[in-house]
Input
Amino acid sequence: MSTQNPILEIENQYGQSIWMDNLSRDIIKSGELKQLIANKGIRGITSNPSIFEKAIAGNEIYDEAIEAGIKADKSVQEIYEDLIFTDIRNACDIFMPVYEESDGSDGFVSIEVPPNLAKNTDSTIKEARRYFEAINRPNLMIKIPGTPEGLPAVEQAISEGLNVNVTLLFSVQSYIDTAWAYIKGLEKRAEAGEDISKIASVASFFLSRIDVKIDDQLDSKLESAEGDAKAKLEAIKGKVAIANAKIAYQKYKEIFSGDRWEALAAKGAKVQRLLWASTSTKNPEYSDVMYVDELVGLDTVNTLPPDTIDACVDHCDPGNRIETDLDAAHKVIDGLKDEAVNIDLDTVMDELLDEGIDKFIKPFESLMSSLENKVKQLAAV
Output
């Protein structure tokens, strides 16, 4: 294994884990996933409805399993779950050595509860519980969206001993609420006399979508801006997501210290790590590893799509930058309030959360309908 791989440097020298944001039966069966772990240092994997839609729709590798489901008279929903649960179980088995070697800190495979439940606490808890039992692997993480309705589900799932990946976090406040949901869940479990040392959780904080949305607003203002106003707008462009993440990391350090946390740590509790998500750069003017290089830091995870993994192996420049330029980060966020800029960050974050749920519901529905069509096709043969 080459020591020239920046991913290994990020992990070994700076204490950040790199996970991959992509899962399909192809990479499991071909041995590619094992190779990524062995050669590129990938230490976990995440899936979501849009990843599964790309993996399953139009891919013949799933046909045999779909046909078996048809013969067994299963519903489209049951066939869908068979397909994804099988992939998730196999991925969990492949990552098991990483899970064991890291003492349950890494080697996780994440699966999302159905995204149309994002606003329903009870149904989310029920599905999280059912998924965890059905897949039955200790290194499974259940993804629950960090919506106001999702967070009580997070707390309950943690108290029941489930590993949780809290997803779709955009604002610093939503991250703070997530961290406390995790802590309260652990406290509830500890009070019941249950072991809390085996539970792991990450808080998935989204990046590139923030810059895309804010840059669009800045660009439309830049069309007519001049002089000082123009300079203020340009100073913020492409900088909000990273500034926001750096501020969240400082909140993480505050929350996971002090007496309340130490009482749980004494019982073996693990910190809930911040995970950087949505890390492929959408603007070709920016570095394609911008959301990796700028946010390397201890006890964090960065989840990268395959193209960003390749780019990082090729030209990431690791360094412990997450706590550098904090004053500049605060200036960027404060700069949004300047009358020349006048962008309300809270409104942007609320819109991004709604859009984020939508971005998972649409591919989920599209996958279910393409699966339905495939079932009809194969049943007719």
